[in-house]
Predict the structure of DUF4856 domain-containing protein.
Amino acid sequence: MKKLLLLPLCATMLFVSCNKDDDNDSGDNGSDIVTPTLYTFERDGVSTVSFGGQTTRILMAGETTDAFKAFETATEASIKAMFAHVEGAVDFSDDDLNSSDKSIESKVAASSDFFAANTTEAAIIKGEFAGYIEGQINEVFPNENVLAAAGVAGQIADGTSTRYVNAQGLEYNQMFAKSLLGALMVDQILNNYLSTAVLDAESNRVNNDNDVVEEGKSYTSMEHKWDEAYGYIYGTSENPENPNLTIGEDDKFLNEYTGRVNDDTDFSTIAADIFEAFKLGRAAIVAKDYDVRDEQAEIIRENISKVIAVRGIYYLQQAKIKIENGEVTGSFHALSEAYGFIYSLRFTRKPGTNDAYFSKEEVDGLLSQLTGDGENGLWDLEADTIESISEAIAAEFDFTVAQAASVE
């Protein structure tokens, strides 16, 4: 009977391609909507999926982060120009990026739910990213060949790698990249494109109900907003219809770290849970079932927030092991990554609420504990402080420090 009921729905509501790939059982999600195997959606034989802007910004973020180590060529002006790219400016190695009217800065701390009415905090956050750039150029670059010490920026040996740190032992490139996970990718997914204020803006719901597409496009505005959220995690995958959910080379940002968390048995379904929710939520939009759509948005919020928290604790605990073994400088790389993940907690979202798991004040407090009040920063950090920060983060979630620390 279920199949007989679904066939006319498939014809009238344009269920996801309704082809041999879309054979998942619809009963598991509590509705009659089929969860497609792939993220493929069509109208009149034409794909309705589009997230080119998100792919562009992820690629821009990668090149901008790489520029933090271009000691011979990068300047404060050149990296800031990459961050705040203007259409036509030759900021990147890729001509397509240079010709784009997109920029990273324009979408940092720019979500509808968190920052539309909070432009003061948004400006502070953008300024903090500018500060990472200024610090790298003005503090680290001049000390490229200086051995770092407490209170002195320079280089440190970390196994077979050479790391470059500021006077507090922090790597600005890691702070920049990992903070972007939250301020760009997480904020735009959880607090902007999956927001009901964005999905249902103006006449979006009426237009979606009547398959009214954007001018010159194959998709409705609501479909496109959901796809843009999808693009911030899977936009640089080799095959975005069926993205790599394990650790791979597709993405050095959110999808990579989702895969790393997923690699632990305690969180072994998290990558699939996120992907399945994206597919079902998009199918629900096609089916005009907004309750199911919003349920999937909450699943995505919960799990992406968890990725940020788990990975932050993981790096903290890796650093703690180093410090306990007397390898103080060996802890700095993991602590620099942890810094960015803690910073990113500001942009997470408690399901069913309009609140982040941590306010900016709470995040600033955790970061202050991490770096200390003195000029030596990480050089003076103790294992007990790391444990305290880890416990404070885990207390807001449904996992333990021990579970997060075991992720490989």
